[in-house]
Specification:
Elements lengths: L21 E3 L4 E4 L6 E3 L11 E4 L4 E3 L6
Antiparallel strand pairs: 1-5, 2-3, 2-4
């Protein structure tokens, strides 16, 4: 166990695009922006679709200057 993935269950993964302007760490809860389909940190107060959690980030991702897959 590594505090993010544990057990014998099948792990499902997919590639997504992280919107620029973010430097996210592994384990961050992501939401999908309705227009454009990019992912950002999921915050309950958002109103762009990202308020609904959709994925957990599997590795640190620095998208500070540009979108990152």
């Amino acid at each position: 166990p590594d505090r993010l993935i544990a057990g014998e269950d099948e792990i499902l993964s997919r590639k997504v695009t992280i919107a620029s302007g973010q430097n996210l760490v592994r384990g961050a809860l992501l939401g999908k922006i309705t227009s454009g389909g990019k992912y950002i940190l999921s915050l309950s107060g958002a109103s762009d679709g990202s308020q609904t959690p959709d994925a957990i980030l599997a590795e640190d991702t620095d998208a500070t200057s540009a979108d990152k897959e």
